[in-house]
Amino acid sequence: MKKEKKSENNEQMEKIVAFCKRKGFVFPTCEIYGGFANAYSYGPYGAELKNNIKKLWWKHFVQEREDMVGMDGPILLNPRLWEASGHTEGFNDAMVDCKKCKKRYRADHIVKELTGEDMEGDLAGMTAALQGGLKCPECGASDWTEARNMSQMFKTEMNSFDGPVYLRPETAGAIFVDYKNVIDSMRVKVPFGIAQIGKAFRNEIVARNFIFRIREFEQMEIEYFINPEMAWEDLFEEWLQRQEAFALAIGAKKEDLRRYEHPKAKLSHYSRRTVDLEYNFPFGFNELFGLAHRGDFDLNAHSQATGVKLDYFDATANRRYVPHVIEPTVGLDRLILTAICAAYNEEVVEDETRVVMKFPYAIAPIKIAIFPLLKNKPELVVKAKEVYDMLKSEYMCEFDDNGNIGKRYRRQDEIGTPFCVTVDFDTLEKDDTVTVRDRDTMEQSRIKISDLKNFFSEKF
Ligand code: GAP
Fold first, then answer.
1. Counting beta carbons within 10 angstroms of the beta carbon of residue 158, is it exposed (0 to 12), middle (13 to 18) or buried (19 or more)?
2. DSSP line for 208-247
């Protein structure tokens, strides 16, 4: 029964991957060269979806809040930062190889898959478990190397710098090193947060599950600075709820979200609490967001490494302290995958299956599609172009005159366009109205062209 469920889920994932390629959301990259490293490109609709999710996140977490500011730091940072944060030394994953078929695995993942046990960090334990008779899922042999650590840091060089530099493995580092500049240049008062969206790079042993685990990805991270003496528990809960609310806003269903509380014994020495918000992807519940109380570990580490004081004078409390930090973080690519999995619907309409992507309006790649009823009637085409020109400065629109109207509706349903507008003969000959068709209800209404802008501003 468990096996059946798994293959059903794989089928769902395969369907989604094929759909994303066919409809211009996500393509395997460098396909004409045979692909590269399980990496992906966002196609035209995927790029729109990605931008919309970024904009929505920035609106939720920066624009609408008085206690948040944004920043945008570089990918290549002074490597001393990564020494101080512990990444150079300790940002490792364990890998193991099957000696027979040479397949490489992340050791903790393969042990968990085969035994259900979470042995992350325990190299000896994982080696013993694997060499104790566990079979390679690829070839069935039980002939394993020892589990060993591999750095997840991507190294590169810079002409003007001696020694290796790194592609940042997380965006958070850039926030900590600019924390003092933000305090000195802005009128921020603790508690406040700094948000950043940007690329991060991890030399993952195995990139897998489509865009869920990739080597070059985007993070949306916040460092929220608080008074070390404040009762942080309620604030922590509030951030958990905000993350959940954001997942719902991009279309996730409540029942597909769950919290994973990191056991106290496994927390880093500086963390008071860490909770992952997991989403029920077709391959099972997996981490979408993370939320960690990191204490003053990062600011102290950078202060010690540089000799620069990173404390803060709290005028209300009339004292100096190094703030503690609560860190809400999420991978943008995982949010995109969540939005796609949550939106994907197959419905039977008049004996035909329609795929409809039920994206929330705010993240739909195309908001309105505009059609002339017939492409060989210039007067219809000219009028439809006028409507398109009127709406495109405010909304991402698409003009489509290809095929019959039914087919055009299906095409727009498949990419999740909330509304289609059709210019027909009544528009020209009667009352200057157009048909507006709703993606979800499939209902159609007649609206005057002069009322369209108001209609859509209410809808969006
Ligand atoms: N600064 C804390 C930090 O980086 P993390 O849990 O390692 O924490 C944060 O990463 C988020 O980044 C994760 O919750 C996940 O959504 C995303 N993420 C991590 N590794 C990823 C990968 N290889 N591919 C895609 N997203 C990833």
1. exposed
2. BTTTTB-SEEEEEEEEEEE-TTS--HHHHHHHHHHHHHHH
Best probe residue, ligand 1, of 82, 221, 329, 335 (max atoms within 8 Å of C-beta): 329
**pTM of the full structure:** 0.96
pLDDT tens sequence across 163-192: 999 999 999 999 999 999 999 999 999 999
Nearest CA to ligand 1 atom 7: 170
Residue 320 per-residue DSSP state: E
H or E element in which residue 385 lies: helix 378-392
Amino acid, res. 361: Y
170 Cα–ligand 1 center, Å: 8
The pLDDT tens digits for 268-298 are 889 999 999 999 999 999 999 999 999 999 9
Query: Cα(first)–Cα(last) distance of the chain, in Å?
Result: 44
CB atoms within 10 A of CB 242: 17
Ligand 1 center from residue 35 Cα (angstroms): 23
What is the residue whose two structure tokens read 């325990």? 122
Q: Which of 70-79, 246-255, 318-327, 342-351 has the lowest mean pLDDT?
A: 342-351
- Whole-number Å distance, alpha carbon 220 to ligand 1 midpoint, is 9
Q: From the CB of 290, is ligand 1 less than 6 Å away?
A: yes
Residue 3: per-residue pLDDT: 43
- For residue 318, pLDDT beyond 90: yes
CA angle, 102 as apex, 101 and 105 as ends, to 5°?
110
Q: Which of 55, 9, 48, 21 is nearest to 416 (CA)?
A: 48
333 CA → ligand 1 middle, Å: 10
Q: How confident is the model at residue 351 (pLDDT cuts 50, 70, 90)?
A: confident
- From the list 286, 269, 251, the residue with the least C-alpha distance to 416 is 251
3-state secondary structure of 205: coil
